[in-house]
Amino acid sequence: MNKEPTVAGQAVYSKKVLSIYDFWVLGVSNNYFWKCPTRFISEQFSMLVSSNHLDVGVGSGYYLKNYLPQSTKRIALLDLNQNSLDTTSKAINHFQPEVYCGDVLEPLELNVDKFDSISVNYLLHCLPGNLIDKGITFQHLKEHLNDGGVLFGSTIFGKGTKLNFFAKKLMGVYNKKGIFSNNNDDLDSLLLSLNKHFTDVKVEVIGCVALFSGKKYNKCIKNK
């Protein structure tokens, strides 16, 4: 797979951009453009994160900094952007995070113990292709999830939701620059991709943001 579009989607996260990420993305954009206040994503994170967790597409590390339980035994970070990894690992240094640089559209050769939960917040809409193509991400991450474990996250739809004038303009700019690649991302495509890889799939759409989760099928239950 050509990695250029993947790199383009994460290249914007310079140290300067990361310093204003929480304000612009989680404060202004979520509230006024995408119409999904960050508290909804935070609540999902708090509810589904485990003490053996992998965070993918870490951004500024906002959810880890604010909602990671103190009882967490193991936390790992996976991103293609070294600035994001550096910023987040420093912010949660007291948890001694494992840090991995990798592309979720490619097989992940982590060679580590599996996780009980994996989060992918605001990652999918930055990846190239449509949501069916991006579904390979679920396949790659599922390989590192324990049976019965949960994958959850959030993504911004570019199709099938109502956008106000400013949201349309901003999303158009982001897609043109390659920061987003979500013009054809919609609910049906997300459900199709999730149901292909997980059970107990749940999706809630707030504004133009989808909050989703799914569990890796427990083989022991199947054999009983």
From TrEMBL:
Pfam families: Methyltransf_12. It comes from the Bacteria. Residues 54-151 form the Methyltransferase type domain. InterPro entries: Methyltransf_12, MeTrfase_VrtF, SAM-dependent_MTases_sf. This is Methyltransferase type 12 domain-containing protein. It comes from Pseudoalteromonas aliena SW19. The lineage of its organism: Bacteria, Pseudomonadati, Pseudomonadota, Gammaproteobacteria, Alteromonadales.
